[in-house]
Amino acid sequence: MSSMMIRCPITGEPVSTAIEVEPTVFRKLPKVSARILCPACGQEHVWATSSAWLADEPNNGRRRTGTAG
Fold it and tell me: How far apart are CA 8 and CA 47, in angstroms?
């Protein structure tokens, strides 16, 4: 299992969503939005699965590729 990560829009720091997921499941997630209380800046952010990545993937911090829409 890997931590699903997003980037804080205020600080630019990578932040864990506290969601652990298998890479094969992560790639199949639908495009949904969620909220997080950001530990990097203390504000609430809305984030989308399309902008998330897995902490231990080689292209950390980049958007997933191959998503439709």
Answer: 9
Render 27-67 in DSSP notation, one character per residue: TT----EEEEE-TTTS-EEEEEGGG-EETTSTTTTSPPSS-
61 in a domain, yes or no?
Answer: no
Supply φ then ψ for residue 34, to 5 degrees.
Answer: -145, 170
Using alpha carbons, select from 62, 68, 66 the residue that is nearest to residue 5.
62
Q: How many domains does the chain have?
A: 1
Q: Is residue 27 part of a domain?
A: yes
Structure confidence by residue, pLDDT tens digits, 5-59: 999 999 999 999 999 999 999 999 999 999 999 999 999 999 999 999 999 886 6
Radius of gyration of the chain from its Cα atoms, rounded to whole angstroms: 11
